[in-house]
Amino acid sequence: xxxxxxxxxxxxxxxxxxxxxxxxxxxxxxxxxxxxxxxxxxxxxxxxxxxxxxxxxxxxxxxxxxxxxxxxxxxxxxxxxxxxxxxxxxxxxxxxxxxxxxxxxxxxxxxxxxxxxxxxxxxxxxxxxxxxxxxxxxxxxxxxxxxxxxxxxxxxxxxxxxxxxxxxxxxxxxxxxxxxxxxxxxxxxxxxxxxxxxxxxxxxxxxxxxxxxxxxxxxxxxxxxxxxxxxxxxxxxxxxxxxxxxxxxx
Amino acid sequence: xxxxxxxxxxxxxxxxxxxxxxxxxxxxxxxxxxxxxxxxxxxxxxxxxxxxxxxxxxxxxxxxxxxxxxxxxxxxxxxxxxxxxxxxxxxxxxxxxxxxxxxxxxxxxxxxxxxxxxxxxxxxxxxxxxxxxxxxxxxxxxxxxxxxxxxxxxxxxxxxxxxxxxxxxxxxxxxxxxxxxxxxxxxxxxxxxxxxxxxxxxxxxxxxxxxxxxxxxxxxxxxxxxxxxxxxxxxxxxxxxxxxxxxxxxxxxxxxxxxxxxxxxxxxxxxxxxxxxxxxxxxxxxxx
Amino acid sequence: xxxxxxxxxxxxxxxxxxxxxxxxxxxxxxxxxxxxxxxxxxxxxxxxxxxxxxxxxxxxxxxxxxxxxxxxxxxxxxxxxxxxxxxxxxxxxxxxxxxxxxxxxxxxxxxxxxxxxxxxxxxxxxxxxxxxxxxxxxxxxxxxxxxxxxxxxxxxxxxxxxxxxxxxxxxxxxxxxxxxxxxxxxxxxxxxxxxxxxxxxxxxxxxxxxxxxxxxxxxxxxxxxxxxxxxxxxxxxxxxxxxxxxxxxxxxxxxxxxx
Lengths: 250, 288, 259
Prior knowledge:
The complex is a heterotrimer of chains A (250), B (288) and C (259).
Chain A: E1 3-15, E2 23-35, E3 39-43, H1 50-57, E4 65-70, E5 73-74, E6 84-87, H2 99-109, H3 114-127, H4 143-154, E7 161-165, H5 173-188, E8 192-196, H6 200-206, E9 209-214, E10 217-223, H7 224-228, H8 234-241
Parallel strand pairs in A: 3-8, 3-9, 6-7, 7-8
Antiparallel strand pairs in A: 1-2, 1-4, 4-5, 9-10
Chain B: H1 5-28, H2 39-44, H3 48-63, H4 71-76, H5 90-97, H6 108-113, H7 133-142, H8 147-160, H9 164-177, H10 182-195, H11 199-214, H12 218-223, H13 225-242, H14 245-256, H15 262-277
Helix pairs in contact in B: 3-7, 7-8, 8-9, 8-10, 9-10, 10-11, 10-13, 11-13, 13-14, 14-15
Chain C: H1 2-17, H2 20-37, H3 48-79, H4 83-87, H5 93-127, H6 132-159, H7 163-180, H8 184-189, H9 195-205, H10 215-219, H11 227-254
Helix pairs in contact in C: 1-5, 2-3, 2-5, 3-5, 3-6, 3-7, 5-6, 5-11, 6-7, 6-11
């Protein structure tokens, strides 16, 4: 299978503000491959290195050593991001724009024609169920609507790879369900989805493969069944892998 | 006890009103600023005089259409004389126009920068002198005791803009604010004499000006000798015009005592004496 | 270029959808009309003080609009985290800097046209005289100068996280240059060493923004500045704008946006 997202011995070190502590290792030689058409769950406790990995893939943070590529192109090249869509966690889009204007802006960044843009905007607003609010300024949107407009912007270029950073974070159950449905539909359309989440239930439900990261190290990778082997479910397996010790009181 | 927000607001409102009513009289004595008779006095206190000076200078800047030395240029060269009622006389104007505070460019920055500065020394003319008036008006409002504002304003209104009526109004206002100002009285006399040709009124205000000068403090008298000379010489001239040659000669004699050019005045006395020779002698009266 | 124009378009939309511009325009209009209605000595032909007041307000307003709009661009993108979906698209950091600059500069240009049109209407209706060429030259020079200021603010906004710090520092620097730029050498000569050397050096290496202030030419109807001088001044401003933008890009390129 073709690997459209790849990291090779990816290492990221941050200089600590306290010089006595030395450098902090955020990623320690991560080797990862995500194949075309799969939904890949990227799991780990807070501070495991999930967001750092995404930041490297998106060119926000340079690797200290090793490398990363998207569609075989080094992530340091802006063109590597031509065929991806990205949904960051907790973003407050330009509140003075309407959803339609926001999508039109991002479409221009991708150099879409006017006709393509109009078509894409109509499709996406329907997909994220925001047609009724398309001409309203984003500042009037609820949190769930903002997250859906974020999802729409990540899809404006009809990407082959979607990188989603905690896409359901902070949403109510209905909002989560809607986002999950959208990911399912994208999967059906043959898109590759790489997403991080703390919601292990939803990861279990929609992911083909998962990877578990802890303190910058890759602890496990495989299908949900492979990773959960020997445990009751993915959550039990996750806790075991990250070394969680339940206290006697609980 | 539960108090509704509305009744709480009503109680606070009543309290505020009671306090303001009872404190109003006391507050009057807290600051002299509140007692000022104009809005600028209330806003700026004595600081208004600084603004008045600035606006008076602005009038001069306007008169020169922006060709004007900055405070830094002034420090580097000599202190510039600010606009006065002598502006507009052809001879003094031509001398002043030859002044060049800029000099040669100091470097390429200065040389290139002069493309974007006004580098021609011009004076307003053809009734454009009116453009200085707003600044004089503001200066007078900010510092009603700045007498030169009234004299300069009246001079331009009378001499350049043909508006002696407005000049008189402005000077009267100045006189109300500065009842002892012989400078304003002198300019008022010029309005009566030059614009209205009313010799009696001109004589009255100039004589009053001299009386004010005589009771002024010694140091002011010393500084304002030239104004006194102008008052006296102008009185001499109107007496000459009116045919009161004796009085005219007496005024010229008084002027000679303070004039830097007594010989020039003597020539005028001689000319009057020649005229008198053909007439019945006139007994000189008490001047002041 | 389409990416840069797309970025610029968002900035322009931001300007006309925020209240800053309208508030400053209304304030300028009210003060100018108020000043214009005052009657001095029953002479209704007096106009230059109105021009002076209006142009001063325009200069202050335009400076505030350009500085405040620019200062918040990059910090707001970081605070709202919109910088991440933006940079996750095929757009370089250099393009973001240029797009933001262009947006702020064009937006300020639109504001200037509105302000100067108001100026021309108000003063022209009083003196029945419209020296359009002089107005055009004054607007152009003003706009070109604001280009340098905007690039300077953009550079500041890379290093200062709070837009208020960037705005305050830039307004002080620009105000200082406008007031003292021409005279800095005279001031230097009056100082002891090493201050004399420092001020003289500053005089030669600072951007001479005071050249772009043609208010006196407009107020006193002094005609036009030679076209060659305007062209050279435009080139000078373009070089300074370039210097600030390159410095801003160098800072932004290395900036860790995730902390």
